[in-house]
Design goal:
Blueprint lengths: L12 H4 L2 H7 L1 H5 L19 H14 L10 H8 L7 H16 L3 E4 L10 E2 L2 E2 L11 E4 L1 H17 L21 E6 L10 H12 L13 E8 L2 E8 L12 H18 L4 E7 L3 E4 L16 H12 L6 E8 L5 E3 L5 E3 L6 H16 L3 E6 L4 H14 L3 E3 L5 H11 L2 E3 L2
Parallel strand pairs: 7-8, 7-10, 10-13, 13-14
Antiparallel strand pairs: 1-4, 2-3, 5-6, 6-15, 8-9, 11-12
Helix pairs in contact: 4-6, 7-9, 9-13, 10-11, 11-12
């Protein structure tokens, strides 16, 4: 007699992987800025978005552990992941393909088929045709806006969590805690005030004057109103240095800067919707970049045209009608380029060129006259650069932070939120 045995269905290992955690693990790969490519003989500006590169990144994430639950990890699968040649294993490749299908299905990546290239004929009426140039026909992908938004949210959550709180909200206290409103003592109502009555104080005034009786007779002078924190509207331009030095000297400074910019964008969009944030990249020249393109940008040409970045930031801010206008500049290098009146670019990477510094400080002075504050986050500590940044700070009454890629986010976000409020007396 034929016997059929049934066992408990445990599901596919790929279905058990936490997709959000996987995307978070792939964050550095998605946001890579050209840092790794300089060690592999590739162009610093080549955007590695091939599907094969994604497979290798997912394999590394799996090998790091804790993505697959223990009950889904057979001893055989664990050993296969430890194998240096795991990518050649059919079962491992099948697992990775399923995870890639899930990433595409959930809208985190957008796979793109390779272009179909028809080879040209070998001969023509005019003679023989030379060999065609090689074209990259490898399948590629693009990260979606959903993935960028998710990475911005996760970065913001991690940064605020490292400050001692696990959640965040639209609050005006230094310590963020959902449901807490910052406010001052009550004061007597004046004509024109928002009628945000402090009921207990208002009733206490009437009782002290008339005694405890019913009905309570209230007069105009009994009215007390709450004092709340005033949330100023703010226009911010994030001025991000993408010159070549941001990925040199054995450290990637540009990817952490992009992460912080994404976190700031997510904070403003979700908690301070009345504010505006624009992004300007500066290198040999400067350019405004849409925020949704931030995750895809890489380091640009070699030099640092700080003045051109400040000029573009001013043009953007002077169009904004906000209580506060500020430039947040993230850089690691000295100004080493200028755009001349005829459009040519003057460059000098050796030391602090007096001509470049003088013209850059003149642009800082224009920001001061326009009431635009400049807060500088410097990722280097050279003496000459420190002196230059301190001069900018002194001229614009802003702040200078000498940080590292590891604590940049904490300084920047706390500075932004502290500037958002002032108490009305």
């Amino acid at each position: 007699m034929k016997v059929i045995k049934y066992g408990k269905y445990t599901g596919e290992p790929a279905d058990a992987v936490d997709l959000d955690e996987l995307v978070k693990r792939l964050g550095d790969f998605f946001l890579q800025s050209g840092f790794e490519s300089q060690y592999f003989g590739l162009s610093e500006f080549e955007n590695e978005r091939s599907m094969e590169a994604l497979r290798e990144a997912i394999l590394r994430a799996l090998q790091e552990g804790y993505l697959l639950p223990e009950d889904q990890m057979s001893e055989e699968l664990r050993e296969m992941l430890k194998d240096p040649g795991a990518m050649n294993n059919e079962e491992i490749r099948d697992l990775i393909e399923k995870l890639m299908d899930r990433l595409a299905g959930e809208g985190y990546i957008n796979p793109q088929q390779p272009p179909q290239v028809t080879p040209p004929p070998q001969t023509s009426a005019l003679g023989q045709v030379g060999q065609p140039q090689e074209r990259n026909t490898e399948a590629r992908f693009e990260i979606t806006d959903k993935a960028i938004d998710f990475l911005g949210f996760k970065t913001l959550q991690d940064l605020l969590g490292s400050l001692g709180r696990s959640s965040f909200g639209r609050h005006d206290t230094r310590d963020l805690s959902t449901g807490v409103e910052s406010g001052g003592a009550s004061r007597p109502y004046e004509f024109g005030d928002v009628l945000n009555l402090d009921i207990s104080e208002t009733l206490s005034n009437a009782i002290r004057r008339e005694g405890a009786k019913v009905p309570i007779e209230m007069q105009y002078k009994d009215l007390m109103v709450h004092q709340c924190e005033y949330q100023s509207s703010c226009a911010t331009v994030l001025l991000l240095d993408c010159s070549h030095s941001m990925i040199l000297y054995g450290e990637d400074r540009f990817t952490p800067a992009k992460r912080v910019a994404m976190a700031l964008s997510h904070l403003i969009r979700t908690q301070y919707p009345g504010d505006s944030l624009s992004l300007v990249l500066f290198h040999d020249s400067a350019e405004e970049v849409p925020l949704h393109e931030l995750a895809r940008v890489q380091v640009g040409p070699y030099y640092t045209n700080t003045r051109e970045g400040l000029r573009m930031a001013q043009r953007i801010l002077l169009r904004q009608r906000k209580d506060m206008r500020q430039i947040v500049m993230i850089t690691d290098g000295k100004p080493s380029a200028l755009t001349l009146e005829d459009g040519r670019i003057y460059k000098n990477a050796f030391g602090l060129d007096p001509f470049v510094v003088g013209e850059t400080l003149e642009e800082v002075n224009k920001c001061k006259r326009a009431g635009i504050m400049i807060n500088t986050f410097m990722l280097a500590t050279d003496y000459s650069l420190v002196h230059f940044v301190q001069k900018i700070t002194e001229m614009c009454k802003g702040k200078a932070y000498f940080t590292t890629p590891y604590n940049l986010g904490q300084y920047l976000l706390m500075d932004y939120m502290q500037r958002k409020t002032k108490t009305i007396h």
